Amino acid sequence: MQNGQNRYTFHHLTENICHGCVCAKAIRKWHLNLMTEEGVTESLADFIQGRAPATVGSAHYLNKVQQAKDEYRRIMGKF
Fold first, then answer.
1. 41 pLDDT above the threshold of 50
2. How many Cα atoms within 13 Å fall on the side-chain side of residue 53?
3. At residue 45, does pLDDT exceed 50?
4. What is the mean pLDDT of residues 5-27?
5. At how many degrees (to 10) do helices 24-37 and 64-75 cross?
6. 6 pLDDT higher than 70
7. C-alpha angle 46-42-35 in degrees, rounded to nearest 5
8. Is the distance from CB of 67 to CB of 61 less than 8 angstroms?
9. Are strands 18-19 and 22-23 parallel, antiparallel or unpaired?
10. Cα–Cα dist 56/52, whole Å
11. What's the whole-model pTM score?
């Protein structure tokens, strides 16, 4: 740290954290593609990955937690 500031920004960490030759960003993209290829809706895949909901309805009125559990159980064998 220099002058009380952290040298590593969120962008720096997400772009440069790698496991072997695979970066976290690539794993997240692969995971999203796998879920959508297996029939998980894009809004539910976004919820599973922690993205903000696109609409008020999906934020407050849909049971995303239960839907996410059901869909994730269904596709677990694909990992």
1. yes
2. 12
3. yes
4. 71
5. 90
6. no
7. 85
8. no
9. antiparallel
10. 10
11. 0.65
Q: How far apart are CA 14 and CA 1, in angstroms?
A: 19
Would you give the distance in Å from CA 76 to the centre of its chain?
Answer: 15
Tokens 């440069």 found at: 16
Q: Please answer whether residues 68 and 48 qualify as being in contact, where contact means their C-beta atoms are separated by less than 8 angstroms.
A: yes
Residue matched to tokens 């994730």 = 72
* Alpha carbons 78 and 37: distance in angstroms, whole number: 11
Strand partners, 21: none
**How many other β-carbons are positioned within 10 Å of the β-carbon of residue 70?**
11
Residue for token pair 């849909």: 62
Q: Please provide the DSSP assignment of 12-47 as one string.
A: HHHHH-EETTEEHHHHHHHHHHHHHHTT--HHHHHH
Residue type, 57: G
